[in-house]
Design goal:
It is built from 14 helices and 22 strands. By secondary structure, it is α/β, with parallel strands linked by helices. Bound molecules: 1,4-dihydronicotinamide adenine dinucleotide (NAI). The site of 1,4-dihydronicotinamide adenine dinucleotide has 28 residues, from helix 6, strand 12 and strand 18. Belongs to the class-I pyridine nucleotide-disulfide oxidoreductase family.
Amino acid sequence: MAYDLIVIGSGPGGYVCAIKAAQLGLKVAVVEKRATYGGTCLNVGCIPSKALLHASEMFDHVAHGMDALGVEVSAPKLNLAKMMAHKDATVKANVDGVAFLFKKNKIDTFQGTGKIVSAGKVAVTNDAGEVQELETKNIVIATGSDVAGIPGVKVDIDEKVIISSTGGIALDKVPVSMIVVGGGVIGLELGSVWARLGAKVTVVEYLDSILGGMDGEVSKQFQRMLAKQGIEFKLGAKVTGVVKAGAGAKVTFEPVKGGEATTVDADVVLIATGRKPYTEGLGLEAAGVALDKAGRVEIDGHYRTNVAGIYAIGDVVKGPMLAHKAEDEGVALAEILAGQAGHVNYDVIPSVVYTQPEVASVGKTEEELKAAGVAYKVGKFPFTANGRARAMLATDGFVKILSDKETDRVLGGHIVGFGAGEMIHEIAVLMEFGGSAEDLGRTCHAHPTMSEAVKEAALAAFFKPIHM
Ligand code: NAI
């Protein structure tokens, strides 16, 4: 039998595309090589890391955050195996949830590695080496991404001593020292987990700031907060070598501006220098599917590759490597394939770093507005002036709203603070509707909430805040 749609890969891009297409009446199959669905995000990425971020945050909070609230507790004891079991149970509930949704939506699933034979034909090779050929009107490549490694440096990742994010969520003991190569999202999230559990964490970052691409002010203040938590930073430092030595490893880095190299020892080294599109074994070359210069599957505005009937979404194509961006592309593509008008607004894709405090942003940064020559206004409000934040001893951080100087339309929002990842969405909704700082400032916000700081920052952008 022929399908309307075969999706290769069941991560957030692929599984959401499959479900949406099935809801719209298409006959859908999914090909997945892992034993469970959900891709990197559910199996070894977003979901397990959030379980460990939450658990380690609770551990740290009980150790350091209770006394000031008048709650006297004895020092917490770490049961790492149980923490990992919580993480595994979280993953299982989520991947099982995807399997349930596939069944509910009558989506056929094929376990094995999918290869595009030609437009309309996918070969699936299962673990036993048996090959099955499937026919379909359309193929969606949603194969995601893989660890990129350090550009120009040969590193032997064993996932025990020299680890990627996959090993970073599965260590069986807390290392005494950990070097994190790369001060991006993975490095700071997993670095936070192990620092809270007791490791001495040093982040070595090539750029002069952490979270490259984030608003400069956000990045600077956030780095100070992490430094207060005991994370050490070596910025403007290029890692040129990572080798195993005895039971641990040695990391060599040199100043980007030039100068002498330094070599340091660590029990564990986390390689967090980015991810690359995953296209291996897909048969793209034989099928004639073109890649762009960065090795991503090239697509047009409707997710079409250069071969008719073959589409691609998610980390394997251009744009930020974020699960929710992939999901929205999956929905848009399913709608397009069902004859509807699917669309993603790439100007309003929130991004969250799930550290403590969290960092969340949507839209443009000040640096981007300056570079584009846009005249803008800035409204800022610190959580130190927010009643709820004071009551919770969660005063670290601030909200920053950027709006168009002429029209007052909100162009970007940036939040560092407890719950930033939840609060960012009111700015996203506002931006989606083309709202102004005045609109946000005049929207009644419940008191006392952290979200009032968002309202105050909007008031600050449009006129003046009340509470500052
Ligand atoms: P990243 O691209 O965010 O950061 C990598 C960092 O490594 C950069 O700052 C880069 O300058 C640095 N670097 C590269 N070569 C280096 C060298 N030789 N020496 C020192 N530093 C070097 O990549 P990351 O953190 O690995 O994350 C990969 C992808 O996964 C990203 O696209 C990220 O957005 C996504 N992700 C998103 C999460 C979230 O939204 N919460 C969580 C985890 C990952």
